[in-house]
Specification:
single chain, 13-stranded mixed beta sheet, three-stranded mixed beta sheet, 7 helices, 31% strand, binds 2-acetamido-2-deoxy-beta-D-glucopyranose
Length: 282
């Protein structure tokens, strides 16, 4: 009996060691980090391919100065036409992402189609609004035929459960278990995703030109930050962090200077009176 317990105990500590060892090994593969010698202010020097991270003048994320955003009727309502697609949830060690294979439909921006390729989460949020950082941010990455990117971001505060993450609970738990079992594949098939869960109607959004928020920090990315902050539960936030390496559990790049960029804003109810009226008139 005692022997059994000891074996169990040593097996447990071995598994724990394995978990730490394997995550350190994976850590080196990623190259960039969120603190220390490979933290965000060092990214530009880590590789010639990452030079935009330090030299670029149109970098993301930013702190959105609500009162200084420009209402732009020209932007119009957000046009998105997603369709069901088979998806795969992947543990990138530095974030959790969902890939849609050939894509899950398009977003139309200035007459150009951008296909939804993948989406991933950051904790806490990368974009700030009026200096406020939120608990998490979902970034939906769209790409056009010519390679241009358009990203749609949703900010989350702690509160009620987020329905899509509730559906993904078991899969996220599997990613967490795979990680500690030293499974290097770190991916889970999701099957068909009903896009009604990710295509939430939005009346208001912010728009600016920025970059990818991880190396190589490529610029000319069209950013759309949804105006409505949604919520996720504390448990869901922990589940998004659990499969990640310890140094990537906080995986948000600090905000970057605007360098004279304008942040535009669109609101469907711009002519009506509502509680957002003050921002709208600016
Ligand atoms: C998803 O995969 C299943 C099984 O391979 C297939 O039957 C189905 O048509 C696929 N759905 C889409 C939208 O591609
Ligand atoms: C590793 O993960 C893959 C994909 O999720 C799975 O098919 C495989 O069974 C896992 N292997 C172990 C040893 O857990
Ligand atoms: C930047 O993006 C716009 C549209 O999003 C595109 O027309 C333009 O060619 C791009 N410029 C570069 C340098 O990639
Ligand atoms: C992440 O950030 C939170 C809040 O700032 C902090 O309490 C926590 O220690 C950080 N975690 C890690 C692993 O750095």
């Amino acid at each position: 009996m005692m022997m059994m317990m000891m074996i169990k105990l040593s097996f447990f500590s071995f598994a724990l060691l394995l978990c730490i060892a394997s995550s350190n090994a994976q850590n080196q593969g990623v190259g960039f980090g969120y603190g220390g010698t490979n933290g965000p202010n060092k990214w530009g020097a880590l590789s010639p391919y990452y030079s935009k991270c330090s030299a670029g003048k149109l970098q993301s994320p930013i702190d959105i100065p609500k009162k200084q955003t420009f209402y732009s009727r020209r932007l119009g309502s957000l046009v998105r036409d997603y369709h069901p697609a088979n998806a795969t949830l992947v543990n990138h060690i530095f974030n959790i992402a969902m890939f849609f294979g050939k894509g899950a439909g398009d977003m139309v921006l200035n007459g150009k189609n951008y296909t939804l390729k993948q989406m991933h989460w950051h904790t806490p949020s990368e974009h700030l609004i009026n200096g406020v950082q939120y608990a998490a941010e979902l970034q939906m990455v769209h790409q056009a035929q010519d390679g241009d990117f358009a990203v749609v971001a949703t900010l989350f505060k702690l509160g009620d459960e987020e329905p899509f993450l509730t559906k993904m609970k078991e899969r996220l738990e599997r990613l967490r278990e795979d990680k500690c079992g030293g499974n290097t594949t770190g991916q889970v098939e999701v099957g068909e995703v009903d896009t009604k869960h990710i295509e939430r109607k939005t009346r208001k959004y912010f728009r600016y030109i920025g970059s990818l928020t991880t190396p190589p920090c490529s610029q000319n990315v069209s950013w759309t930050i949804l105006g409505k902050v949604r919520s996720l539960s504390e448990e869901q936030m922990q589940l998004l962090k659990a499969p990640l390496d310890i140094s990537y559990k906080n995986n948000s790049r600090p905000v970057q200077p605007l360098n004279g960029r304008k942040v535009e804003m669109f609101h469907e109810l711009a002519d009506k009176t509502d509680d957002d009226n003050n921002e709208v008139r600016n």
